[in-house]
Amino acid sequence: MKVLVIGRTGQVGHEVCKLLEKKNITFFAPDRNELELSDDNQIQGCIDQYQPDFVVNTAAYNNPVRAENEPSKCFAINRDSTATLAECCQRAGISLIHTSSYRVFDGTKQDAYNEKDPTNPIGVLGNSRLQAEQQIRERCDQHIILRLSWVTSERRPNILRRLIDQMVVDKEVYVTPDQLGCPTSADDAARVVIAILQQLYCGAKPWGTYHYSTTESVSESNFAETLISEASQHQELAVKKLIMAKIDSREGIKPPANATLDSSKLLNTFGIHAKPWRSAVARIVHDHFKPVEP
Ligand SMILES: NC(=O)c1ccc[n+]([C@@H]2O[C@H](COP(=O)([O-])OP(=O)(O)OC[C@H]3O[C@@H](n4cnc5c(N)ncnc54)[C@H](OP(=O)(O)O)[C@@H]3O)[C@@H](O)[C@H]2O)c1
């Protein structure tokens, strides 16, 4: 099995590469210098050069605030490059595993979203994610689209890092009880991607769209309380008070209120179980405060 991983420097991409290495699976993971997604020739070039059996695309333009100010760049990376990638995969008979996001939904549903729920993205980023999915469905038969909820890790910006960075310096931290999600550690998401890959390699062909998120959803405010109890074991925090704020626009855009995803289709189809998030959060917080080795 030969795998081409796109987005190796990202939260999930980094963990996918680590797991492929650990499992001795042959993979290629060009970084942006070799594969700039806004360049169709580079996409085709990498497919021709590495001739993979599978492409795992975890790359994305992920900043919802900047996306509102530069929509064409966001659509070029998230939709147009994905369309090119899907076409290249289809032409070469390569199977594509593409990670997507809860942001294809408007977040107004009261409980977990399943794959049959109507999509209704709010904002540029959400629309670019949905249109990327549509491009894949139109152009590449052998595809798995894996939608994720809140992705967390120690390595790059995410909700966990944002809250902890604020708690370390600010006496008061604004959080909202109205936003729900499932903190999913990047290595857990990578576990799911590799488990799917291995079953596809063994001949399974349940092409389509799947959701993965950890077992329990949590509000941003309760998540912040968990982070305070975890982080204060490692360092004295400045935060004395969590201020409950409305979910209204933060930095100009309103995030989907509910990012909870139902993972039962993934379980029923691939036998992949969802994990709880607390132990992973404890580990990420520990790594965050771990002294950096010289
Ligand atoms: N982060 C979340 O909370 C979240 C939530 C739901 C779904 N997801 C989805 O999960 C997947 C992984 O997300 P993540 O958080 O791991 O992403 P991330 O940490 O933001 O990393 C994004 C990756 O995409 C690469 N990339 C961006 N623009 C590129 C371009 N023009 N050409 C080549 N590479 C480019 C980045 O490379 P550089 O290092 O060179 O910038 C990086 O490797 C994505 O599909 C994302 O939409 C994420």
Summarize the structure.
With 294 residues, this protein is α/β, with parallel strands linked by helices. It is built from ten helices and twelve strands.
Give the ligands present. Answer: NADP nicotinamide-adenine-dinucleotide phosphate
CATH topology of the domain at 2-156 and 184-215 and 260-277: Rossmann fold
The name of the CATH superfamily of the domain at 2-156 and 184-215 and 260-277 reads NAD(P)-binding Rossmann-like Domain
Number of helices: 10
Termini Cα gap: 37 Å
Helix/strand class: alpha/beta
The profile of the biggest β sheet is:
6 strands, parallel
Helix content: 40-55%
Radius of gyration: 19 Å
> What's the overall average pLDDT, rounded?
96
Number of E-state strands: 12
- Beta percentage is 15-25%
Shape: globular
Write up what this structure looks like.
With 294 residues, the chain is α/β, with parallel strands linked by helices. The protein has a domain at 2-156 and 184-215 and 260-277: NAD(P)-binding Rossmann-like Domain (Rossmann fold), CATH 3.40.50. 43% of the residues lie in helices and 16% in strands. The strands form four sheets. It has a six-stranded parallel beta sheet, with helices on both faces. Strands 6-9 form a two-stranded parallel sheet. The longest helix is centred in the N-terminal third of the chain and has 22 residues, at 71-92. The two termini are 37 Å apart. It binds NADP nicotinamide-adenine-dinucleotide phosphate. NADP nicotinamide-adenine-dinucleotide phosphate (NAP) is lined by residues 7, 9-13, 32, 35-38, 58-62, 77, 99-102, 148, 150-151, 156, 158, 186. NADP nicotinamide-adenine-dinucleotide phosphate binds at residues 7, 9-13, 32, 35-38, 58-62, 77, 99-102, 148, 150-151, 156, 158, 186.
